[in-house]
């Protein structure tokens, strides 16, 4: 089995080449990000300019029609002549023409501005694409260097106990990060389900309001059979939406047991005998009261659901904080490990013992990681 020194010697040339590539292309990361920001800003400006140009085009069309209408108005010209106001007619005609020409000038300015923005966008897009290609070279070199380090140092290296210790720290940090990431995914899933439940509960509340409105009309003898049908349909929709809400709440609770029940939501339903066969003002008023009770339950359920949504938002934020913290620790541990590994190549290049431990001096930063 090859010793760590032999592995380093075998990989030294590749390490030098990849490290040089990483150093020469490091500028592309921030440059590409800046370029992308510029492209997004130009697109926003173009959208605003296109909107403005549409408004200007409409203004030009209006002014031209006014100008043309005034210029071609023989009856108005005749009236001014007969009234001895020919000069006034010509002044107003000139004013109409000036307003039209001013609008055309604005239109031309907007078009030129839009053309300039589109030219800038084309150039910025090409520049961003060129930078993206360099970023890919940079990232590929980092990945290749990482793979090279892994092939050389992965597993126990008795000659380099510090490297083994750093490698174990990375593994522990990875386990912590993965656990926190799983927790965050779970909380986000629960939050998404609660969002769906809130949507269906809002629909149910709209339905119960419609049902109450129809019930009120029915109690006063307005609408007859049509009103009763509308009331029944609204209650049926409401029940369907409440059932969907209850199913989603149960689903969210399975994902996150801390989510509490939001309360009973019993939706009043029309009784065929009471509300159709023996329809009268008393049965109608009783039905309206039952609908009001259902509305109160839905109102309370909405308030309770909002509390659960707020509580889940807090859990999502806390989980995100822990993920960010774990990610920071993992990145730090990985960088420390890569520094130890890079130092081994430096010691080899300087003719020193590979296992010697001294603070490394870097011409090139080791590859960073994105989890």
From TrEMBL:
- The protein's superkingdom reads Eukaryota
- Give the species: Phialocephala subalpina
Give the coiled coil ranges.
1-66, 163-190, 316-343
Annotated spans, Disordered: 351-371
Q: What is this protein called?
A: Uncharacterized protein
Keyword line: Coiled coil
